[in-house]
Amino acid sequence: MTAALDFVAVIGRAALALLRAVGEVSLFALEAVSHLLRPPFFWRQFWRHFIEVAYFSLPVVALTALFTGMVLALQSYVGFARFNAESAIASVVVLSVTRELGPVLAGLMVAGRIGAAMAAEIGTMRVTDQVDALTTLSTDPMKYLVAPRLLAATLAMPLLVLVADVLGVAGGFLVGTWKLGFVAETYLVNSWAVLETMDVVSGLVKAAVFGFVIALMGCWCGYASRGGAQGVGQATTRAVVWASILILALDYALTAAFFS
Questions:
Q1: Which of 36, 34, 21 is nearest to 154 (CA)?
Q2: Where are the domains of the chain?
Q3: Which of 136, 145, 229, 253 is at a distance of 20 to 30 A from 205, taking alpha carbons?
Q4: Could you give the 3-state DSSP secondary structure of residue 47?
Q5: Is the pLDDT of residue 24 over 90?
Q6: What is the DSSP letter of 173?
Q7: What is the pLDDT of residues 39-96, one digit of tens each?
Q8: 39: exposed, middle or buried (C-beta count within 10 Å: 0-12, 13-18, 19+)?
Q9: Residue partners of 222: CB distance under 8 A and separation at least 6
Q10: Which of 77, 97, 98 is nearest to 88 (CA)?
Q11: Using the 8-state DSSP alphabet, how is residue 82 labeled?
């Protein structure tokens, strides 16, 4: 009986900790968004982080999308050849990349790069009292540190995903025409025929949501970090893990909303 009660107590503590974290993140997000709607806004900080997300994340996102499209075309051919359905490969590649793989893989890559960097930078400022110094200098840390990062990531992610969509489809096209023997004109016609505006728009909306989540978790984990260098390391890990989990969960929710 005691063991059962201990088990229930552990579950209860975990549930309460999760609910507390959800509440803290929600209040943090609301406060950050409110600062986006009220002047002043630090445009220099915004452009610095926008370039960091959109430009310096481009190589890893581009390579990920390109090789994902190539592997997807190759694996689709292996499976569809069993049913004499090789003509559907172009459709599968373009829909998979634009709807799911482009935004999700780009989000995971950016979460590992940008989310960790944001958590480390703000966490270091927190444990070295630089955040308190901003308050002493009459500068709101939420307005100076968090709001520009949220807006920058939210606007930059759709641009990255747009590039990822193009390169992912291009990767499938290269494998389809050079290795699998498809006629280039036929492959392009099949890809264009099945693609609809909503397929691209849904991926871009997902990208904006993922960008907001990545910046939110990076800023919140860094802002809440304590305990010196070890605390900063733990905050960085939490930012990447929780951003990745939320990306996958929100991907399902948004897919159900768009295509159910």
A1: 36
A2: 42-259
A3: 145
A4: helix
A5: no
A6: H
A7: 888 889 899 999 999 899 999 999 999 999 999 988 888 777 777 766 778 888 888 8
A8: exposed
A9: 118, 119, 120, 121, 122, 123, 124, 125, 126, 232, 235, 236, 239
A10: 77
A11: G
Residue 1 confidence class, pLDDT cut points 50, 70, 90: low
What residue type is assigned to position 108 of the chain? L
Distance CA 115, CA 235 (A): 10
What tokens appear for 18 in the block?
Answer: 């999760």
Burial class, 26, CB count within 10 angstroms (exposed 0-12 / middle 13-18 / buried 19+): exposed
Q: What is the distance between the alpha carbons of residues 135 and 97, in angstroms, rounded to a whole number?
A: 45
Degrees to nearest 5, angle at CA 22 with 19 and 25? 150
Instruction: Quick: pLDDT tens for 101-126.
Output: 899 999 999 999 898 999 999 988 88
Q: Which of 244, 219, 57, 203 is nearest to 150 (CA)?
A: 219
Chain position carrying tokens 């955040």: 131
Contacts of 62 (CB under 8 A, 6+ apart): 163, 164, 167
Average pLDDT over residues 158-187: 88
